[in-house]
Amino acid sequence: MIDLEVLEGNLKNNKLDNCYIFAGLDEMLIKESVENIINTVIDETFKDLNVIKLDGVSTTFEDIMNACETLPFMSDKKVVIIYRANFLREKTDSLGAKLYSQCTEYIKNTPSHCILVLYYLLNDKRENLMKNKKIMSLDKSCTLIKADKLRGEKLYRKVNSIFERKGKRIGKVELKFFCDSVENNFDIIEREIEKIISYTQGRDITRGDISLMLPNKEEDDVFDLVDYISQKRPEKAVDLINELLNKGENMMLILSLIESQFLMLYKIKVGISEGKTKEDFVRELRRPAFVCEKLIGQSKKFSYKQLQQCMKLCIETEKRLKSTGFHKKTEMELMLIDTVRV
């Protein structure tokens, strides 16, 4: 298994393999690396004729095999990309298991004229790729690439290049503050940069601008926590709440944010039933469009009754936490387990 930096070095030295599998959290970083592979082997003039993209959710083995077996046009190589290849996940349905089994055999004998690229996104930052036996079993058949988040100077340089590409300069201190404050996901980073540039037209970016425009990181953690509840994964929810508490986060604040999240999801469900759109929620909630889109998706995972019960559990837990006779950390864990059972 290699990382993105090693892949970049291999491509510069024209060291290519017949099959690559990417896995990571940041789809934009993965797409950039896939584009680098394409640019290394295919002339710009013939890209449209020699690059085939297949949706991993709906594709069949026959689609994949036909795409790979067809000879390239006016080129030595062609590239077949299977994006969102969720059949590579550790747990899939029967169709996904069958497609994985078929692809496993085919990957070992990928035609020499074809570079097959597959990628899927990890569920969350706590998912351990090394524990995915399906992925690791392919390590000898193809090149596995762990698309890790950029850190430190690499992150600063990459983010600064986006500001420059958009025609805006940002000071070194402000750049570091922005990188330390924003979620480490380049799809989100790009959107937040656009917001800040629009807000600061004609003047320099300040730390105050960044603080004002960026969403609260605690809210992101609470979104993940509620998502675990919707997925019926109490162990993940408990791990996250303990991680937050161990970092010194205020317990009552976290509980308040969880309750507010359930209330917001309830209001969104009511709004959807009344015919409201994403744009309506952007205005009402004063959140970016992509955040509202995520909230709408999350609201659909709960029924009205479930959300009412979850809010009730939050209120009851708050009462107990204000009493000195209860172990507060245990109360939070029990509340999360109860919300999953609702």
From TrEMBL:
Reactions performed catalytically: DNA(n) + a 2'-deoxyribonucleoside 5'-triphosphate = DNA(n+1) + diphosphate
GO MF entry, a single one: DNA-directed DNA polymerase activity
Would you tell me the Gene Ontology cellular component terms?
DNA polymerase III complex
Q: What class of enzyme is it?
A: transferase
The DNA polymerase III delta subunit-like C-terminal domain sits at 219-338
Question: Which segments constitute the DNA polymerase III delta N-terminal domain?
Answer: 20-143
Under which EC number(s) is this enzyme classified?
2.7.7.7
What keywords would UniProt list here? DNA replication, DNA-directed DNA polymerase, Nucleotidyltransferase, Transferase
Q: Which InterPro entries match?
A: DNA_pol3_clamp-load_cplx_C (IPR008921), DNA_pol3_delta-like_C (IPR048466), DNA_pol3_delta_N (IPR010372), DNA_polIII_delta (IPR005790), P-loop_NTPase (IPR027417)
The biological processes this protein is annotated with in GO are: DNA-templated DNA replication
- Give the matching Pfam families: DNA_pol3_delta, DNA_pol3_delta_C
- Family in the record: Belongs to the DNA polymerase HolA subunit family.
The protein's matches in PANTHER family, at most eight in alphabetical order, are given as:
DNA POLYMERASE III SUBUNIT DELTA (PTHR34388:SF1)
* Protein name stated in the entry: DNA polymerase III subunit delta
Organism of provenance: Clostridium polyendosporum
